[in-house]
Target: DoxX protein
Amino acid sequence: MRLPLELRHVAPRLATGAFILNSGLVKRGADEETAVQLHGMAKNTYPFLEKMRPTAFVRLLSAGEIALGAALLLPVVPTVVAGAGLAAFSSGLLGLYLRTPGMRGEGSLRPTQDGTALAKDVWMLGIGIGFVVDELTHDGR
Model:
């Protein structure tokens, strides 16, 4: 049986999967103050989240990160599926970066010191898109 994983995908899947899984596990035990902070930033960017309670939001975010991290780490999950999930997740994070005041220099895409923590997530978008494009264009030889 051949796994749906190419050798060239192992390192980026391990790196991103471990990073995201850890983030989800840390958020799983988030206290009320942390939940309020994370929810506050998210609801300012994505107003539909306003209706969620902060603790429910963080539980859902944690579960999503754990699921995505596991999908990237498990070789039985096809890279195109894991890559699509990674691209979608990192797009949401970059939306926070682009829409949150103070994250970028005025009239620029360059991050401020505060924005660097979110801007760095662009690497995950690149990896996710790369996985999807590679899987859709690779002829298997």
